[in-house]
Design brief:
The complex is a heterodimer of chains A (about 450) and B (about 200).
Chain A: E1 5-6, H1 20-23, E2 28-30, H2 32-35, H3 37-46, E3 53-57, E4 66-72, E5 75-81, E6 87-91, E7 106-108, E8 111-113, E9 120-122, E10 127-129, E11 152-156, E12 159-163, H4 171-175, H5 179-187, E13 194-204, H6 208-214, H7 221-224, H8 226-232, E14 258-263, E15 266-270, H9 281-284, H10 292-303, H11 307-314, E16 319-323, E17 327-330, E18 333-341, E19 344-354, H12 365-397, E20 405-407, E21 419-420, E22 426-429, H13 434-447, E23 454-455
Antiparallel strand pairs in A: 1-23, 2-20, 3-12, 4-5, 4-7, 5-6, 8-9, 9-10, 11-12, 13-19, 14-15, 14-22, 15-16, 16-17, 17-18, 18-19, 21-22
Helix pairs in contact in A: 10-11, 11-12
Chain B: H1 18-27, H2 41-59, H3 63-67, E1 70-79, E2 92-97, H4 98-109, E3 121-133, E4 139-152, E5 155-170, E6 173-183, E7 190-191
Parallel strand pairs in B: 1-6
Antiparallel strand pairs in B: 1-2, 3-4, 4-5, 5-6
The chains are: A alpha+beta (about 450), B alpha+beta (about 200).
């Protein structure tokens, strides 16, 4: 049984100075949710400290002793596959005086040594030695000198999560029904998996929730991405089907795109029904990308009718899968958001490559990936930058404190728009803001509770 | 391979294939060797003027004149990895062929590209220009250091790094075949990287 060390709040501060029932209403939330530094500090404890937070992907640490640095809220973390193969999330903080012990973003290491006074730790978190121990009167075999670590770390099909909350449900239960679109997204790839292959890294001066609020939003698409939609279709002639996100034009609520709210802040926008269910249909709506014609012709010459299904793997899967609070799967990207302060957020769009260990792609995996790299670069270059500047626009607008409310009532009180099934999963049209309202209900629940945050320094293998 | 006669690279992308990528990766591997450094002052000046012209046209937002400095089959490549990496296997910050570069210009000319509303103003310094010979008389590699200051929405910021230009002598003079932009912070999170670097 792992012993947990309960975190103590300094000086028994009150758990909150905010009345969240006043700040969060069904149709609107208060601007201070996005602007108040004190409220942000509470979020780092009550949201990021209470739920399962995405930390890293297993393909980033394929071998024993591989590590990658990450954050859990603002806590600096080393995600490591230790020398026995156990994946751990170590606090990147020397037990001695608090310095970060690992300053490389990734690598391979059996141990970490603090650059400040040289305390060393195995990659299990166990203290391995301190310089000149004879100057100490303590017993360094006491676990209290080991690195702190996230007490519960678990993977879901390659996605590594951690939680500081001993009372949190299992990861599988926390994810709940969002696992289904996640499974489907993975299962379209050979072996049911992907590998990370570098990233488009962006940042914006805005609150982290602005990105989460946008993640299932089908309302902004033709406005925020107007230049991208025009660009993607500038060479489309005559009766050829329009490319990319053109299906948002006209009346998107009447079309086949829908969104689902799954509970625990997770939601999903499904655009797959806009694509015919036959091999090659996804490839047909892919916008222009470098190398398309050349690779397609070569693949068709080599593979014949099998080329369509292979080309679909280079195409962007039309889904947005959002796992609260910091993981998004959209197209072929794995997008991770990282709050830096109340008004600063990093968003990293990890590219994914196809892995084909059993040669399901007739030896063409390299060609698929060469195309797939290019299809993935498009949206961060020509779409996301416009969204991020709109988020910065919101953050600037919310400086007007006495203009208090941010509205999210599209669809509210309009009969016939949403349905709720027996499991509580809500389905609505693509521009509905029901996913926001439901997410903020969950958020209010988190912010009015106080999680018993715990860390552990036990190094025993589970 | 010369596909340009049958395929217009502004409309279709026939030149970006396996052979093209391999040649690109080879050309940008271990190319800055002392013995290949070009002493010829006139040739160096030609290269330096081309790079300065490119910077000036971009600063003036003369994007159509700027892309005319490029060969029909060209690449604008901003790696996300400090060593350039292999664009077949890794995502880049940007990797544009001719058509996508024209996409980029189209979008920057579109009134609804919010990341460029207001339009950025830029001032580019290109310096430390060093020219390297290749095995081909009609081809040169040029290394330079850049510092680009951008004013975006009232906020001043900088991009710094070095360029690797691959130049080819065509019938009408030297043209840019590849521009590799090596940002010193290529593996960090960038705020609104929507200008041409």
């Amino acid at each position: 049984m792992t012993q947990h060390e309960a975190a103590r709040r300094p000086n028994r501060l009150p758990t909150t100075q905010y009345d969240y029932d006043e700040l969060i209403h069904e149709d609107r939330v208060h601007q201070s949710l996005y602007t108040d530094p004190g409220l942000f500090r509470e979020e780092m404890r009550k949201v990021f400290g209470a739920v399962w937070v995405y930390l890293a992907h297993e393909s980033q640490i394929p071998k024993n002793n591989d590590f990658v640095t990450s954050k859990l809220g603002l806590r600096p973390i080393i995600v490591v596959r230790d020398n026995a193969g156990t994946i751990r999330a170590l606090y990147n903080r020397c037990t001695h005086r608090g310095a970060t012990i690992c300053r490389q973003p990734s690598g391979s290491a059996r141990s970490f040594s603090c650059p400040y006074h040289g305390w060393s730790y195995f990659n299990t978190g166990q203290l391995s030695g301190v310089p000149w121990p004879e100057g100490y009167g303590c017993d360094f075999s006491d676990p209290k000198y080991n690195l702190a670590q996230v007490p519960r770390v678990a993977s879901y099909r390659g996605f590594i999560f951690g939680t500081l909350n001993p009372d949190a449900p299992s990861l599988e239960n926390y994810l709940g029904p969002v696992r289904r679109p996640l499974d489907e997204w993975l299962d379209r790839h050979p072996g049911g998996k992907v590998a990370f292959c570098d990233a488009n890294r962006l940042k914006f001066r805005g609150n982290w929730k602005l990105l989460y609020d946008n993640s299932c939003d089908g309302y902004h698409v033709i406005f925020s991405h107007r230049s991208l939609l025009a660009m993607e279709n500038r060479l489309v002639a005559g009766n050829t089907p329009e490319k990319g996100m053109a299906f948002y034009k006209n009346s998107p609520d009447d079309g086949p795109v829908y969104l689902k709210y799954f509970g625990n802040g997770h939601h999903f926008k499904d655009k797959r029904a806009t694509v015919e269910k036959r091999p090659g249909a996804l490839w047909e709506i892919e916008g222009p990308h470098p190398g398309m014609e050349r690779y397609e012709a070569a693949l068709r010459a080599r593979l014949g009718e099998n080329a369509d299904a292979v080309l679909d793997l280079a195409s962007s899967e039309p889904v947005n899968i959002n796992v609260f609070p910091n993981l998004h799967i959209l197209g072929n990207h794995v997008q991770v958001s990282q709050p830096l302060s109340v008004s600063e957020t990093d968003t990293t769009w990890w590219g994914t490559a196809v892995v084909d260990e059993k040669d399901a792609l007739y030896g063409e995996v390299d060609a698929v990936n060469a195309l797939r790299m290019r299809t993935q670069e498009s949206f961060p270059n020509f779409g996301e930058v416009d969204d991020l500047m709109n988020f910065e626009g919101i953050q600037a607008g919310l400086a007007a404190e006495e203009d208090e409310w941010v509205y999210m009532h599209r669809g509210l009180d309009v009969p016939g728009r949403i349905t709720t099934d027996a499991d509580g999963v809500i389905t609505g049209p693509s521009t509905d803001e029901v996913f926001l309202r439901e997410t903020y209900k969950y958020y209010r629940q988190l912010m009015t509770a106080e999680p018993d945050i715990a860390i552990t320094r036990e190094v025993a293998h589970e | 391979m010369n596909e340009t006669k049958t395929h217009d690279p502004s409309l279709t992308s026939w030149y970006v294939g396996e052979d093209f990528y391999q040649d690109l990766v080879d050309a940008f591997t271990d190319w800055q060797t002392d013995e290949r450094e070009v002493d010829d002052l006139a040739l160096r000046d030609t290269c330096r003027r081309l790079l300065e012209k490119e910077a000036r046209l971009l600063d003036r937002r003369r994007l159509e004149d700027w892309i005319a400095l490029y060969a029909p089959e060209c690449v604008y490549w901003v790696p996300a990895t400090p060593h350039g990496g292999d664009p077949r296997r890794e995502i880049a910050v940007s990797f544009d062929d001719r058509r996508r570069l024209e996409d980029r210009i189209f979008r920057l000319r579109n009134d609804f590209a919010w990341s460029q509303r207001p339009q950025s103003r830029t001032a580019r310094l290109v310096s430390n220009v060093t020219v390297f010979a290749t095995g081909d008389q009609a081809e040169l590699m040029v290394c330079s250091t850049f510092l680009t200051t951008e004013l975006q929405a009232g906020d001043r910021r900088t991009y710094a790094g070095w360029y690797g230009h691959r130049l080819r002598r065509l019938d009408d003079g030297w043209r840019i075949v590849v521009k590799q932009v090596n940002l010193i912070d290529c593996d960090q999170n960038l705020r609104n990287p929507s200008i041409v670097l």
